[in-house]
Amino acid sequence: MGVIAVQLEVMKDYAIKNKVPIVQQEAEDILINLVKQQNPQSILEIGTAIGYSTLVMAAHLPATSHITTIELNEERAEIARNFIQQAGAADRITLLCGDAGELLPQLSGSFDMVFIDAAKGQYPDYLAKIMDKLTKGACIVADNVFFRGMVINEAVDTPRRFRTIVKRLRGYLNTVTADPRFSTTLYKTEDGLAVSYFLEEKTDEAT
Fold first, then answer.
1. pLDDT of residue 157
2. Is the pLDDT of residue 206 over 80?
3. Rounded to 5 degrees, what angle do the CA atoms 165, 142, 129 make?
4. What's the predicted TM-score (pTM) here?
């Protein structure tokens, strides 16, 4: 953990200097608490960026736990891979480079925890594609669900270029708050965090 903690400070500096978005402090604190509470054996992360949140989670996991993380951008994936190796955590993290929408259906196994922090307009699609991979009680954490406040403030005139994203994020929140298979808490962090627990067991039967 000591090595990872040092590496995280290096990554914070890198993110600031290179204007790379990483999980913000309040959301990071909640994520750490959830990892400690859940003690997940298998984590799926959608949106690696430079691997900051990946290592935040790894720092608080037992050695037997494993993280699978997906990043679309090849350059960022390579930077993340280097940071992960320098932190000595490469044996506990599998980094996949590609479109999560295409990779998710190909994943085998199941996950106790999922952290979503990628293309905001794709959150409903990501959720649909992980449903058959969730263990009972799995925790799904979705970051930036308020999208600059536009999602929860319907009085705001959303700029045209953001309307699809806002509509889809509202759809995501409607699913995890209205669907009885989920128990969801919304946190008013810097840009909103949704923490959902999957209450239904995974099944191989078609529904």
1. 82
2. no
3. 80
4. 0.93
- CA-to-CA distance for 130 and 61, rounded, in angstroms? 22
Which domain range does residue 88 map to?
3-198
Q: Which residue has the higher pLDDT, 189 or 141?
A: 141
Tens-digit pLDDT profile for residues 97-137 = 999 999 999 999 999 999 999 999 999 999 999 999 999 99
CB-CB contact of 144 with 192 (8 Å): yes
Q: Is residue 203 part of a domain?
A: no
pLDDT at 158: 87
- Cβ–Cβ < 8 Å for 30, 187: yes
In a domain, 207, yes or no: no
Beta-strand pair 111-116/42-46: parallel
Alpha-carbon span 21 to 52, nearest angstrom = 10
Cα–Cα nearest to 51, from 26, 88, 103? 88
The sign of the CA dihedral 158, 162, 164, 170 is negative
Matching residue, tokens 């953001």: 162
Q: How many domains does the chain have?
A: 1
Which tens digits make up the pLDDT trace of 160-185? Answer: 899 999 999 999 999 999 999 999 99
Decide if 28 is inside a domain. yes
Q: Is residue 204 part of a domain?
A: no
Phi, psi of 139 (to 5 degrees): -105, 125
CATH number assigned to the domain comprising residue 92: 3.40.50.150
